Amino acid sequence: MSANVTTPPTQVIVAGKSLGVALLLTVFFGPVGLLYASIRGALILIFGIPTAAVILAGVGATASHSNQAAGLGAFGLILLIVGLSYPVSIIWAVMATNAYNKKLLSHATA
Q1: If phi over 0 gives left and psi between -120 and 50 gives alpha, with beta otherwise, what is residue 30?
Q2: Residue 69's pLDDT is what?
Q3: d(CA 69, CA 76)
Q4: Contact 25, 36 (CB under 8 A)
Q5: Which of 24, 62, 65, 101 is 20 to 30 A from 12, comparing alpha carbons?
Q6: How far is CA 39 from CA 55, 88, 91, in A?
């Protein structure tokens, strides 16, 4: 005797990422807090900001030997890049969290 048994479809429940948590982490930890929302984005900012600062510091050190104004300009760019890393990481966290949650919802309805 063989019984015709049907099993219900399997459902996998995946929680979305919290926008509030993403904001708090990036506000308090900057690019490191971005790891919650976007690993790729965090790595770009964590390694990209210091790399750009070191390159500009080298340019500034080289330029300051010949022209002091050029050295100060490079230093100003370093401060600008480092200063923008926090707002950029916050914006990136919001965009990455929204994209992740939207992707989850589109897969849930498909």
Answers
A1: left
A2: 61
A3: 10
A4: yes
A5: 24
A6: 24, 14, 14
Q: Which residue has the higher pLDDT, 102 or 70?
A: 102
For residues 16-29, average pLDDT: 94
Per-domain boundaries in the chain: 19-104
Instruction: Find out whether 43 and 102 touch, Cβ atoms under 8 Å.
Output: no
Contact 61, 14 (CB under 8 A): no
What dihedral do alpha carbons 53, 25, 41, 60 form, nearest 10°? -10
Identity of the residue numbered 72: L
**Core vs surface per residue 53-88: b (16+ CB within 10 A) or e:** beebeebbeebbeeeeeebebbeebbeebeeebbeb
